[in-house]
Structure formats: C-alpha cells, structure tokens
Amino acid sequence: MSDNCIFCKIVAGEIPARKIFEDSDLIAFHDIHPAAPVHFMIVPKEHIASLADAHARHEALLGRMLLLAPILAKDQGLNDGFRTIINTGKGGGQEVMHLHIHIIGGGNLRAL
Ligand code: 5GP
Ligand code: ZN
Prior knowledge:
The protein is an alpha+beta fold. Helix content is about 20%, strand content about 20%. The chain has one domain: HIT family, subunit A (2-Layer Sandwich). It has two helices and five strands. The longest helix is centred in the middle third of the chain and has 17 residues. It binds guanosine-5'-monophosphate and zinc ion (ZN). The site of zinc ion has 6 residues, from α1.
C-alpha cells in the first residue's frame, strides 16, 4: 500500500469502485471516466508504480494480468475484440501511478 495512491485505496476498500473481478493478486474495476462503452482496468494489488517499475519477480503477475484481459472482456460482452492500453510514465500519459491495463471496447475505435 502506497500512501495517497488512489488504486491502493480501491484495493484496500477505502474508495468504492465498480469491481468486476478480484482474487488474491489482482482486481479489476470500471474506469470512472470511460473512454468507450466498455472501459475497465486490471490492477495488481501490489503497488507497482508503472510498467517501468516492474521487475523479473513480477513476470508471472504480468502474465496473469494479460491472460485475464480476454476473459473479463468476454464477461463484459466484448465478443468482437477489445483494446488493451498501458500508459507508462509522464511521457506515456499515465495519470495514476499504480500499474494498470486499460481494456476498452464496444464502440468504433480508430486504428492506431
Ligand atoms: P492512466 O492515465 O493513469 O493510464 O489512467 C488512469 C485512469 O484511472 C483514468 O482513465 C481515470 O479515469 C481512472 N480513474 C482515476 N481515478 C479513478 C477512481 O477513483 N476510480 C476509478 N474507477 N477510476 C479512476
Ligand atoms: Zn498503489
């Protein structure tokens, strides 16, 4: 738990969130400002500030986050596919400094 980290507070249950999944290592919840009809995030319970702060010991955790994405996307009705985004650091537009994968879909996403 990192002080003043909004996602750590969601993990600790101190701030409410529309949770869609939780186990001992991960939590997933809807984004408060959705960028698409479906927009949720997969978040490790451990406070890792960004992808640039992940280490070899996080390898399995990162793998689990990615493998969970299509399962939860399907649960949320994204049967045609979805987009995953990880913003990293200031240059990547990251605003919440606790690692998370965005999963968005359900609308027309422009090609990148
Ligand atoms: P970032 O820009 O760091 O990749 O994305 C952070 C995301 O967290 C943003 O899309 C923002 O809408 C979302 N967010 C920020 N604060 C909260 C919150 O308190 N609850 C939820 N559910 N999402 C939040
Ligand atoms: Zn945190």
